[in-house]
Amino acid sequence: xxxxxxxxxxxxxxxxxxxxxxxxxxxxxxxxxxxxxxxxxxxxxxxxxxxxxxxxxxxxxxxxxxxxxxxxxxxxxxxxxxxxxxxxxxxxxxxxxxxxxxxxxxxxxxxxxxxxxxxxxxxxxxxxxxxxxxxxxxxxxxxxxxxxxxxxxxxxxxxxxxxxxxxxxxxxxxxxxxxxxxxxxxxxxxxxxxxxxxxxxxxxxxxxxxxxxxxxxxxxxxxxxxxxxxxxxxxxxxxxxxxxxxxxxxxxxxxxxxxxxxxxxxxxxxxxxxxxxxxxxxxxxxxxxxxxxxxxxxxxxxxxxxxxxxxxxxxxxxxxxxxxxxxxxxxxxxxxxxxxxxxxxxxxxxxxxxxxxxxxxxxxxxxxxxxx
Length: 372
Description:
The protein is of the alpha/beta class. Helices cover 37% and strands 16% of the residues. It is built from twelve helices and 17 strands. The protein has a seven-stranded mixed beta sheet, with helices on both faces. Helix 1 (16-29) runs antiparallel to helix 8 (231-241), helix 2 (37-50) runs parallel beside helix 8 (231-241) and helix 9 packs parallel to helix 12. It comes from Limnobacter thiooxidans. GO terms for molecular function: pyridoxal phosphate binding; transaminase activity.
């Protein structure tokens, strides 16, 4: 490898010259935030692109997730996955809710619906699944369970921008879906987030909550927070939206090459993408199993030595962290699949400008290590 460092993900950035007119317009309008014109344009454009009825933009995905829980007035216990980024469960603690961890499916690494019903108690009010790596949870079965027990469903869709299943956006599943528009995501606004909802009344409540609860200059409707997206971030989103299809296409070419070159490497397994899913190539995780001669962590370190920065997403498990490990549902014996995944999964670099020859070099290193 040369001296360049190859990271697991990088933002796809359009030419700087194209951003200058947006900056000039913000300067001329003297509107920097508070539901400005670019903010309104981006909400409308994203609704059209994603095929969703309503979307509320936020300063980041974590505040969006916290607000989604508040908007639905969730209380008590929430069933969720231990295999995710920490903000999934942190958003529950910030709302004084108790996470109840349920194991993941060993094949999809998504919340296993077969384990949900046994975790439901009289205190359960909602289910918070994650579309892990952008691959859809079993939304049909989760909705069936929610309907039977009268539960709300909020999807952490941080990885799932633009993903469809059977031709329909998975962002329309459940009561709410929450996107991250962070710089490392498939589509980004540098920093940002969004809530997708199905009706105007819910959208209005969310908009109140993200602006301190203000309905007008003198009327505060709810104990809101400052979650607004700035005009600068919204402008970046409008520009990025012009390039997102091209970025996704490049990601999918990269993951296709990974799949081809790693197909016969002993001890390396790949996460399957269902035939009915239009994926976004958000991540490329592999399982380093017992047939590989070195551990996942040793392979991670070897790649680092070559300037290749993969990620052990998600290690350690949320349920293993100090603020969670004392919960009864965090007992490792109840979460065997999640613990195995946390020990085996390595996400390899994937971003639109990753050269295919670099993908090939990464695969050569992995293949050589497999031969001892």
